Amino acid sequence: MKIAIIGASIAGLTAATLLKQDHQLTIYEQNPDALKNQGAGIVIPVELFNALLEQNILNNNILAIGIIKRSIIANENNHEKLICEQNLVARALHWQTLYAQLKTNISNALIKPKKIVHIKEIQDEENYDLIIGADGHHSIIAKTICNTMAPLYAGYIAWRGTVPLVECISPEIFGSITESTVPYFVYPNGHCLMYLVVEPDTDQILINWVLYEKRTEASLQNVLSMNKDAHQYRTLARGQMDTEQKKYLHEMSSVLPKIAHEIIMHTSEPFIQPVYTRVAPHRINAQGNTILIGDAASTLPPHTASGATKGMTDALQITAAINNNGLEGIKEWAMMRQLDDQKLLGLSNRMKDFLVMNTPDWSTMTALKFAEIWSKVIAGESWYTSNTSEK
Ligand SMILES: Cc1cc2nc3c(=O)[nH]c(=O)nc-3n(C[C@H](O)[C@H](O)[C@H](O)COP(=O)(O)OP(=O)(O)OC[C@H]3O[C@@H](n4cnc5c(N)ncnc54)[C@H](O)[C@@H]3O)c2cc1C
Questions:
Q1: pLDDT at position 390, please?
Q2: Which atom number of ligand 1 is nearest to the Cα of residue 40?
Q3: Which residues contact 105 (CB under 8 A, 6 or more apart)?
Q4: Residue 391's pLDDT band (boundaries 50, 70, 90)?
Q5: For residue 257, which of 123, 292, 315, 386 sits 20 to 30 Å off, Cα-Cα?
Q6: pLDDT tops 90 at residue 223
Q7: Ligand 1 pocket, 37 CB below 6 A?
Q8: What confidence tier does 78 reach under pLDDT thresholds 50, 70, 90?
Q9: How far apart are CA 255 and CA 341, in angstroms?
Q10: How far apart, in whole angstroms, are the C-alpha atoms of residue 65 and residue 391?
């Protein structure tokens, strides 16, 4: 088949790696060299990680941290009060590490540096059998095949950053790099989770932290006034935060136990991501020759840690579907995947509700109560905490 992929990031590069053997590919990417100082941590399931190694999509010596559990921790007089621990089996990578490895699979000759402004440009340019929209949250391809897909403000923002583990006052809270723990510091307006990743250039172990803060859309202008476009506030990148914003972050995060607060205070270049959600009503166009994968299809509340997983799983699944049954296989895949999208949206909304928007009284929370609520949140779905076997 003659295939065009729009977007050469996690989803697009994984799809390209798998499809390049048997198909004629062209990849369009608006920003083929944008790597420096980008990204932070990414978490993926062990099963997916192993499948990527087996298929030589990732290299065996990739720098990944083994996660085996998470601890739910409240603040009691500035100290940690452990509510409970849960199995949480996963691998954590630096975004740059994952991106750079995927990029080495693809020859530069396959990538056309071009920003696609309308799908017609490529439809008219070449006679493609299939167009794959892997162009992320602001997807042009999604806009074309779904008419419009306005992002919805989710009601909260993520303050983020990385700090060298050696600067942490109690590094033992994270365990070891092969069997690490993810602390979730809970508070009334959200939570702050932290996990280890390896910095690709230096091999230094970093603490990657994400502090969710509930706030109204109107109040976004107080923290992101310079970063608004027509539809939504944009991410405030590393190095752009001014002293007032940092001061606010430092004061606000004093609600967390001292260890978490100190890590945030030590972060030299924190950044902010406002959380927006959008889900494509369908993954395929009426003609059955244009599909959406990865963030182009949906951006969900981040608590399921499914961004990279979804994009790479899509890539694996569409390759199998194309190789089994061509465009017919793709149509079947798109219908099936639509159901997965709805289930994942439900799960991430329940997590968002419990852990950010309508948090319980953490001061009276017990391990038993947490387990009861958590089983309702999970509602029989499979997620990182369901996996007790493989580590
Ligand atoms: C620079 C960068 C850093 C990131 N860092 C993190 C991180 O630290 N942690 C995390 O969890 N997630 C991060 N993400 C998001 C993460 O990659 C996605 O959530 C997930 O992995 C799915 O990836 P994707 O390939 O579907 O979308 P994305 O990673 O968003 O990639 C979309 C790609 O399409 C290209 N593109 C978009 N529009 C056009 C167009 N019109 N024409 C041509 N090309 C276009 C973009 O330049 C980009 O390369 C980052 C994304 C980027 C682009």
A1: 44
A2: 8
A3: 13, 16, 17, 57
A4: very low
A5: 386
A6: no
A7: no
A8: confident
A9: 35
A10: 12
C-beta of residue 105 within 8 angstroms of C-beta of residue 17: yes
Distance 156 CA to ligand 1 centre (A): 21
Kindly state if the Cβ of 115 falls inside 6 Å of ligand 1: yes
- Report how far ligand 1's centroid is from the alpha carbon of 5 (Å): 13
The domain locations on the chain are 2-386
294: Cβ below 6 Å to ligand 1?
Answer: yes
> Helix %, strand %, coil % for the chain, to 5?
40, 30, 35
Residue 68: which region, alpha, beta or left (left: phi > 0; alpha: psi -120 to 50)? alpha
Nearest to 236 by CA among 247, 244, 225: 225
25 touches 15 (CB < 8 A)? no
6 lines ligand 1 (CB under 6 A): yes
Q: Which of 6, 10, 106, 344 to mutate to test the pocket of ligand 1 (most atoms within 8 A of CB)?
A: 10
- Which helix (H) or strand (E) covers residue 87, if one does? strand 79-94
Question: If you measure from the C-alpha of residue 97 to the centroid of ligand 1, how many angstroms do you get, rounded to a whole number?
Answer: 14
Secondary structure letter of residue 276 according to DSSP: E
CA distance 157 to 205: 26
User: Tokens 């990849």 map to which residue?
Assistant: 27
* Mutation to probe ligand 1, out of 6, 52, 58, 95 (largest number of atoms < 8 A from CB): 95
**Cβ of 11 below 6 Å from ligand 1:** yes
Residue 4 banded pLDDT, cuts 50, 70, 90: very high
